[in-house]
Write a structure and sequence with these properties.
Blueprint lengths: L2 H13 L3 E6 L4 H5 L5 H4 L5 H7 L4 H8 L5 H15 L3 H14 L9 H10 L5 H9 L1 E7 L13 E6 L1 H5 L3 H11 L6 H15 L5 E4 L14 H13 L7 H21 L3 E4 L20 H6 L5 E3 L7 H10 L3 E4 L3 H4 L1 H14 L5 E2 L8 H24 L5 H19 L2 H7 L6 H5 L1
Parallel strand pairs: 1-2, 2-3, 3-4, 4-5, 5-6, 6-7, 7-8
Bound molecules: zinc ion.
């Protein structure tokens, strides 16, 4: 049988799968449509913008380039030389895919940027998220809201999570006061602090589908087992300080204690814990903080918990594969990887097919703030999954039925089960049905 026939058949099957997107950050739609949007202000909010800076663009030029109140021509002139430097990266390829498929524009260059920009501005209207998700074949996304009110979201396509980084990270009186406001619980002592955290989780537990922890952006993922007394003593120092609060180093035992507390609460509520591991967005961070093996003690201590470990822990994807292979409570999530490197997605899958049980991997999460990026990520993920499966068939490792079964698991069934999306299906706000509109 010719190889292209096989590829076409697998591609067609992969194309037919309604995706579960394990992670997206789309700005609330009412906020987005209230702001002007164009090529340079919207598509360079993140990712490709970090490549621009890494290629040499001064950060103040990035700010000017993104400012929609300045003339587009002037901003293009700032942008263009750096664009030439980054157009080889997968972040840039994602934008080129979105330009081609969603706006019918083949390239981003001095002849096309105005038309593309106008297209993006015209598309900045209500309903765009549903429209693009439909086009991408995304049924539902776990939505990392970056907004303390997950009840404000479109549950027809989003299943929300809440981030608890602010509860772990508070190390000044001002930050603690902010948590009191979010939770509705006055915080005077450590008991109150835990009560506030519990109240916040309890209030949202029935409407969220995961708890998100993103602290690897600012501390290592090793959370020691700390006695309550030690944590309370740090908390008391936070409350006694009238200026900046305590240092990051001093705050560590308190943060460690709170992380263990959160894992216990996630177990109580049967919620999966999504943890950022690996590559941090931006241009200045400590990658070693995000090594997933730092989580080993939590994985050992909480067999009842479910840990969904993000971004293939890139570049520690081998370590992540090992954790997912060994620990029943560790799950490997390839969100953001399609647009970091389709090659890494493909290679990781090819190895994990041999090492990790088929129920432990989720292969698609877009991780974008703007929906055109989510679309491009879906295209790149479907392609990389198709390539990985075809390679394994051609190696003689999988037969075609096995490959088709894995595709459905990786792109849909595994995350559906991991986040308990049957409940989402029951709770979701239904789009107006035909029967109703006829009546
Ligand atoms: Zn993210």
């Amino acid at each position: 049988m010719p190889a292209t026939e096989l590829r076409n058949r697998i591609a067609e099957h992969v194309e037919s799968i309604a995706l579960v997107n394990t992670h997206d950050h789309l700005t609330r739609e009412d906020y987005r449509v209230a702001e002007p949007a164009d090529l340079l202000s919207l598509w360079f909010l993140h990712y490709a913008s970090s490549d621009l800076v890494s290629s040499g663009m001064p950060p103040q030029d990035l700010e000017q380039m993104r400012d929609p109140r300045q003339p587009l021509e002037k901003r293009w002139r700032i942008f263009q030389p750096y664009w030439e430097r980054i157009r080889n990266t997968a972040y840039a390829k994602a934008l080129l895919i979105a330009a081609r498929d969603l706006y019918g524009i083949d390239d981003i260059n001095r002849r096309t940027y105005r038309a593309l920009s106008e297209g993006i501005a015209a598309a900045n209207r209500k309903g765009r998220y549903r429209e693009i998700y439909k086009r991408a074949g995304i049924e539902v996304a776990i939505w990392d809201v970056l907004d303390p009110r997950p009840e404000s979201i479109d549950t027809a396509i989003f299943a929300p999570t809440i981030r608890l980084d602010n509860f772990i990270g508070a190390r000044s009186r001002g930050e603690v006061a902010g948590l009191a406001a979010i939770s509705g619980v006055d915080i005077h002592n450590f008991d109150d602090h835990l009560r506030a955290l519990n109240a916040h989780i309890d209030r949202h537990a029935r409407t969220i589908f995961a708890i998100k922890i993103g602290v690897a952006y600012w501390r290592p993922l090793r959370f020691e087992r700390v006695g309550r007394g030690e944590a309370e003593a740090v908390f008391n120092r936070v409350m006694a300080d009238l200026s900046q609060g305590v240092s990051m180093e001093e705050a560590r035992p308190l943060q460690d204690y709170l992380m263990h507390h959160i894992v216990c609460r996630a177990i109580d509520h049967d919620l999966t814990i999504q943890i950022h591991t690996g590559i941090q967005e931006g241009n200045a961070n400590l990658i070693t903080n995000s090594n997933p093996t730092l989580l080993s003690n939590l994985l050992l201590e909480y067999p009842q918990a479910r840990f969904d470990l993000f971004h293939a822990s890139y570049p520690y994807w081998r370590e992540l594969g090992l954790l997912a292979k060994v620990f029943p409570n560790a799950f490997a999530d390839l969100c953001w990887v399609p647009t970091i490197s389709p090659r890494v997605l493909r290679t990781a899958l090819e190895e994990w097919i041999e090492t990790v049980p088929g129920n432990k991997v989720s292969a698609f999460g877009a991780d974008y703030i703007f929906v055109d990026g989510s679309y491009a990520a879906s295209r790149m993920a479907r392609q990389a999954v198709t390539d990985a499966l075809c390679n394994k068939i051609e190696e003689g490792y999988l037969d075609e039925d096995e490959a088709a079964g894995l595709a459905a698991k990786y792109l849909r069934e595994n995350p559906w089960a991991l986040f308990g999306l049957d409940r989402w299906r029951r709770q979701r706000r239904k789009p107006p049905s035909r029967a109703k509109t006829r009546r």
